[in-house]
Amino acid sequence: MGEYYEILDVISANYKIIFGGIGVFCGVWGYICYYVNVFSRGGNNPCIFTWIPLTVIICFGLYAQLKTGAVWGAAVTGVTALNCIAVAIISIFCEKSKPEWSDWVCFIGALIAIVWWRISNGLVVPVIIVSFADAIAFFPTWKRGYKNPFGETMWMWFLNCIKYVFGIMALGAYSITTLLFPLTVAMVNGIFVIIILSRRKYLSSQQGTPL
Questions:
Q1: b or e along 130-169 (b: 16 or more beta carbons within 10 Å of the residue's beta carbon)?
Q2: What Cα–Cα distance (Å) separates residue 52 from each residue in 46, 47, 190?
Q3: What is the signed CA dihedral for 146, 149, 153, 156, rounded to 10 degrees?
Q4: Does 58 or 118 have the greater pLDDT score?
Q5: Phi, psi values for residue 199, rounded to 5°
Q6: Contact criterion met (CB below 8 Å) for 106 and 87
Q7: CB–CB of 58/164 below 8 Å?
Q8: Residue 155: is its pLDDT beyond 50?
Q9: Residue 3 and residue 9: Cα distance in Å, rounded?
């Protein structure tokens, strides 16, 4: 029986490596699509009010995953962290739109949530807080995508969602501390894809233009 369980552990580890690799590939390919869109004419610029707090959140989220044993699942978050840093830098130089009051509310709210997260005790409560902060930080980008859905890189957000699904399957340990954050990010990206597609369909029907 001992050898049987050892074989199962090896198979499970190999699958997690494969799932982690697929997640990393989806992440890299999604961000390549995003960079092409950002630097092309007509693409939405990255929102500084989303990407700065998101970068902080992802980097701390990566640290939390590594600390709790999410080895191959953390590889997905690591790729995301590197690209978030790059996009945050781009957003500083490319931001042209005038911020609205809701952008500032979300930005400050996300930063407060990040500080609250870092000073919170325990494991579960901080993960809940950081997941909530991620959703708040994403709202300005949701709003921008709602206004100009054709300027958004739909494939990047879709691949981000898929990336975290594979990242979850690649987790080395399953608990609320390792599951909640990637699950929240996957849902946030998935909802944004639905927003983009529904708005494109609506605007196309109003203007008579193809999707």
A1: bbbbbbbbbbbbbbbbeeebbbbbbebbbbbbbbbbbbbb
A2: 10, 9, 21
A3: 50
A4: 58
A5: -70, -40
A6: no
A7: no
A8: yes
A9: 10
Confidence grade of residue 65 (pLDDT, cut at 50, 70, 90): low
74: tokens are: 């953390």
Could you report the per-residue pLDDT of 30-53, keeping only the tens digit for each?
A: 999 888 888 876 666 788 888 888
170 CB-side CA count, 13 A: 26
Residue 120, judged by CB atoms within 10 A of its CB (0-12, 13-18, 19+), counts as middle
DSSP 26-83: HHHHHHHHHHHHHTSTTPPPPPHHHHHHHHHHHHHHHHHHHHTT-HHHHHHHHHHHHH
**What is the tally of helices (H) and strands (E) in the chain?**
7, 0
Mean pLDDT of 87-101: 79
pLDDT for res 59: 83
How confident is the model over 95-110, as a mean pLDDT? 78
Phi-psi region of 208 (alpha: psi -120 to 50; beta: other; left: phi over 0): left
Measured distance CA(191)–CA(181) in Å, rounded = 15
Kindly report the average pLDDT of the chain as a whole number: 79
Q: Find, among 49, 40, 64, the residue nearest to 107 by Cα.
A: 49
